[in-house]
Write a structure and sequence with these properties.
Layout lengths: L2 H7 L5 H5 L12 E4 L4 H14 L9 E2 L3 H11 L7 E5 L17 E3 L12 H11 L5 H8 L1 H25 L23 H19 L1 H18 L9 H17 L5 H8 L21
Parallel strand pairs: 1-2, 1-3, 3-4
Helix pairs in contact: 5-6, 5-10, 7-8, 7-9, 8-9
Length: 293
Amino acid sequence: MGEDHLSQDIPSWSLDAALTLPVLYGDLNDLDVFIEDEEKVTQQLYVELLRSLFPDKKIEKVFPLKGRKNVIDGAKNISQQIVRPTLFIVDGDMYNWGVPSPEVPDIVFVLPCYCIENVLCTHVGALKICWEESRGKSRREIAEEFAYDFWLQKNERLLTALFLEYSVVISLAYPGRTVKNSIGSFCGDASGIVVYSRLIDKIREIRQECITLVGRDKYFSEKRRISDYYRKNISRVSHLLSGKHVWLPLLMTRIAAVGKPRISKESMRLRLLDSADLGFFDGIENYVLLPNN
């Protein structure tokens, strides 16, 4: 049975069965890593990043458990039964915005950003691809045309308002609500910059949805709490916006506008790995579980 066939079968397996899958890959991995996301491209990102973080370990595959709860439950269930060094990783998700979080065992590494794709969203990586693909422009010309600080600040300001609304509705009404949107629909052109006139309708829609479900008093009370949490605890916004659904698509749109690369989005994503911010993984080595024997 080939690896591709196994990967397609994993989602239909029980959690207990999924936790035993590393046994089938004993010759490929020195470190077994369980994650939330089952998308192939996300798994590939994890493999490449983990190889950089653990250069002395052989890592050919990570094991998706289909969600945060399954990763947490898996860590609780097998932490005393592992046969090889093992690591459990969950996304920071909306919990970094002050949304009440279910308890996470201290043996699980929580990304201090929204998700793994945020790690790819770096100034250096974006400009590097633009310069390499620009066919003749200087690094200075690329930097000036990209206007990274301007692009960052424009998007952060507007998207912060959107994610504050998401935080309130997730906290009060829909704990499992997704922040997935077609982020391109919020941009006025191909610049990778969100515009207010397009975003405000979505903000109003989310706000009204929450007020309809829980009432104005409860909504505004929670909005004040979330806003206070934001002001007191959040200094850098970009890594708390969804990398997969918001930040990375906007960054790649900006790269496409400035550098006009002749590569696929998947290739662009993999090239951004070269400049990934590994600082998000500080201390991860302390979360590797070792066999008792």
